[in-house]
Amino acid sequence: MPRERVYRTRAIVLKRRDQGEADRIVTVFTPGMGKRAFMARGVRRPASRKAGHLEPFTHVNLLLARGRTWDIITQAETVYPFLPLREDLERAAYAYYFCELVDAFTREEDSHPELFDLLLHVFKYLETSPDPYLTARWFELRLLQMSGYQPQLQVCVECGDVLQPVTNYFSVERGGVLCPRHGEGQKGAEPLAVNTLKVLRYIQSRSHEAVLRLRLTPGRMRQVEKLLAEHIRYILERRLNSPNFIERVRR
């Protein structure tokens, strides 16, 4: 049975790039089709009615027509604009980071409705968040779990023994924690303090609301952020751009 020529979807705008004199390629994340890239014709012209609905982070309803190379956005209607995420530099930096993570960890047309809902959830919180740090760590660990890359934090990835409350070691190559017997002297394995492991376990296993009640020292925050950043970098085999932007905004 032939596919319908015209179809609709909800979407979150992840990124966009200019194409030709007046067009844009808009990459979105949808609940039913996963990540998709669509053509928005004439959207850079001043009179375009679609332009304001295709800004980064916007939750939007799209009407699309199938094309030979690109499916075409024929109509766009904002569901929720998330304006504070574009008006505040720190919120924008974190929103770009979440979009970059989703873009990096997903493939074209790989349906993932739970991840779509997760992205909407953190965007809603970012609108009013005084400090997005804990939300970012919670989002990272949820995304890793959904993508099949959740770090092992309960048992040694080498021997399977339950980890004891002593200094253990984290290995990005092994995807989790090594006990002292297998981690000490292991190339690339970094010492992992007892309290840092406790924080990671808590963020990994608790609700967003519970995680937001954590109170961490600046040193502990840096340790947790660095460990997750290195874990993500190893999985993707590259560094993301947004963390540097976040760091510049913080200064």
Q: What does the average pLDDT come to?
A: 95
Low-pLDDT parts are: none
SS class: alpha+beta
Describe the strand arrangement of the main beta sheet, using strand numbers: 3-2-1-4-5
CATH superfamily of the largest domain: Recombination protein O, C-terminal domain
Question: Helical segment tally?
Answer: 9
Strand proportion: 15-25%
SSE order in H/E notation?
EEEEEHHHHEEHEHHHH
Q: Rough shape?
A: elongated
- CATH class group of the largest domain: Mainly Alpha
Question: N- to C-terminal separation?
Answer: 57 Å
The second-level CATH architecture of the largest domain is: Up-down Bundle
Topology:
Elements: E1 6-19, E2 23-30, E3 34-40, E4 59-65, E5 72-80, H1 84-87, H2 89-105, H3 113-126, H4 133-147, E6 168-171, E7 176-178, H5 180-183, E8 190-192, H6 194-205, H7 208-211, H8 218-236, H9 242-250
Antiparallel strand pairs: 1-2, 1-4, 2-3, 4-5, 6-7, 6-8
Helix pairs in contact: 2-3, 2-4, 2-9, 3-4, 4-8
Keywords summarizing the entry:
de novo design (two linked rop proteins), 2 domains, 5-stranded antiparallel β-sheet, elongated, 3-stranded antiparallel β-sheet, 251 residues, 8 strands, single chain, alpha+beta
Description:
This protein has helices spanning 84-87, 89-105, 113-126, 133-147, 180-183, 194-205, 208-211, 218-236, 242-250, and strands at 6-19, 23-30, 34-40, 59-65, 72-80, 168-171, 176-178, 190-192. It starts with 5 loop residues before the first strand and ends with a helix. The model has no long low-confidence stretch (mean pLDDT 95). A hairpin with a 6-residue loop joins β4 (59-65) and β5 (72-80). The protein has 9 helices and 8 strands. The strands form 2 sheets. The protein has a 5-stranded antiparallel beta sheet. Strands 7-6-8 form a 3-stranded antiparallel beta sheet. By secondary structure, the chain is of the alpha+beta class. α2 (89-105) runs parallel beside α4, α2 (89-105) runs antiparallel to α9 (242-250) and α4 runs parallel beside α8 (218-236). The chain has 2 domains: 6-80, Nucleic acid-binding proteins (OB fold (Dihydrolipoamide Acetyltransferase, E2P), Beta Barrel), CATH 2.40.50; 84-250, Up-down Bundle (de novo design (two linked rop proteins)).
